[in-house]
Specification:
A: 98 residues; alpha+beta; 3 helices; 20% strand; B: 372 residues; mainly beta; Methylamine Dehydrogenase, Chain H; 4-stranded antiparallel β-sheet
Chain lengths: 98, 372
């Protein structure tokens, strides 16, 4: 079971609490986690990664285990702590500055 | 008793303002989609409870929302706006070819007759249509495919289809306006388009002031009873066409500034029109710090300032292109929203004004529904 933490605006869009829990088939990677997330919450399709290219939207970041995984290959296995549900996979809206 | 519903899009959410036919007491409902930019929301003329909203975010992209109960509840709809075929290029700011890239929906225009049909004007400039209530979107690619398309160039605010006007007497005829390409018209329901900009002059914006394409048209308005007459607020100049866009002539007349964004027509008087003069394209606020709506009862050229109830000193807000609308009650109501978060209403065709609400986020769009 994978824990995914969503930013405020995506929580309201998906009508969920701060954290959702997902079963992911096979290895836990950015791609497999986001695929599972979008299957359960289709309204999130296109909000985290481009619907056509599957590339991360520029102002969305992925954090886990105190690491910035945003620029990792989407098929790289996520840390074991994420795969086992000990730590969450965090989808974060980038800071706006100002 | 009849009533009015005012749909307000702001930088941080949507608001639905409702009143009975007296238009004295208002119920403020919102924010819907709190924290998101709502470029535009509009109701279907064929079913007033069917509303569409464009919800955008620099972080999370484009969403389309639909309500079937007049804005009480909403559901997210389809949001994939995919250009038809190989998108090709338009000109970038530096004059080089730049691939067409979808950025956001600026304007949603529901069909006059079918609640499930709605048009979307988008940036980079293109027109999309949904015929299934917003679930899926298809590009009407003849517009962007016009031979001038590769030479369209964005203005400072981007390059978008921001105005969509349907001819109620001719289902095949639609006008769109694009910043900064100008007005285009279709007579075959969007298959083919041609520019209709003859008579526009843009001396300070274009190397050829009379160019067929490239004008920064800000907004078009039409009275439904007289669809061959169009009014235009251009970047500079208020313009009029009496032949469905075939030719335009200037009707700025005695306005204190002919720069501005919105323009609208009185619900019952096709020759009565409204603009909000803005000082200049470098200073997006009213001349002399006085917020004045100008009304012409002669279809242009002769204008009167409408000031009662509007701030007449130290006012430096803007009124954006989609932020003015009218109701169709017997005494025509006129409404506009400001970048300062006020929504003003007049229940007597502009003679007197009062704020419905003062402290919303910056207002991007105002639409009005007159309810039975």
């Amino acid at each position: 079971m994978i824990r995914v933490v969503l930013p405020f605006h995506l929580r309201t869009l998906a009508r969920v609490d701060r954290e959702v829990q997902l079963e992911v088939e096979g290895q836990a990677t950015q791609r497999s986690v986001l695929d599972a997330l979008e299957v359960h919450y289709p309204m999130l399709r296109g909000t985290i990664r481009d619907a056509a290219t599957q590339r991360r939207r520029p102002l969305v970041r992925f954090f886990a285990c105190e690491q910035d995984l945003s620029n990792e290959d989407p098929d790289t296995p996520l840390p074991d702590a994420v795969a086992t549900g000990t730590e969450p996979f965090m989808v974060v809206g980038a800071m706006a500055g100002g | 008793m009849s009533g009015v519903r005012v749909l307000v899009g702001t930088r941080k959410g949507a608001f639905v303002l409702t009143s009975d036919g007296k238009r004295e007491q208002w119920d403020i409902n919102g924010p819907h989609f709190a924290g998101w930019e709502i470029y535009h929301l509009k109701g279907s003329p064929a079913d007033p409870n069917r509303l569409y909203a464009s919800q955008t975010s620099g972080w999370f992209g484009q969403l389309i929302q639909r309500s079937n109960d007049g804005g009480k509840t909403w559901e997210p709809m389809g949001k994939e706006f995919v250009y038809d075929g190989v998108p090709g290029t338009h000109l970038w700011y530096d004059g080089t070819p730049h691939p067409w890239e979808f950025a956001r929906v600026w304007h949603l225009e529901p069909s006059l007759i079918d609640p499930d049909t709605v048009y979307a004007g988008v940036e980079d400039a293109a027109l999309f249509r949904s015929i299934d209530g917003g679930q899926t979107w298809q590009e009407l690619a003849g517009l962007r495919g016009h031979e001038s398309g590769p030479y369209w160039q964005p203005g400072a605010g981007g390059m978008a289809v921001h105005t969509i006007v349907q001819d109620p007497s001719n289902p095949g005829r639609i006008f769109v306006a694009i910043s900064a390409a100008g007005v285009f018209r279709t007579d075959d329901a969007g298959q083919t388009w041609r520019p209709t900009n003859r008579g526009l002059r843009s001396e300070y914006e274009l190397p050829d002031p009379n160019a067929e394409v490239g004008h920064c048209v800000h907004r078009l308005a039409m009275h439904p009873s007289r669809p061959s007459v169009l009014f235009m607020q251009k970047h500079w100049d208020v313009m009029r066409s009496d032949d469905a866009g075939e030719s335009w002539h200037e009707v700025s007349g005695d306005l204190p500034s002919d720069f501005g964004f919105p323009i609208d027509v009185h619900a019952h008087e096709p020759e009565t029109i409204y603009v909000v003069p803005i000082k200049s394209d470098s200073e997006h606020y009213p001349p002399e710090g006085k917020l004045r709506v100008y009304r012409s009862r002669t279809g242009g050229n002769e204008w009167e300032a409408l000031t009662k109830g509007l701030p007449q000193s130290d006012c430096y807000v803007n009124v954006l292109r989609d932020a003015m609308a009218v109701d169709s009650l017997d005494s025509c109501g006129v409404y506009f929203g400001t970048t300062g978060g006020q929504v003003y209403a007049s229940t007597d065709a502009g003679d007197n004004w009062a704020p419905i609400v003062r402290d919303l986020p910056a207002v991007v769009s105002v639409e009005v529904q007159t309810l039975p």
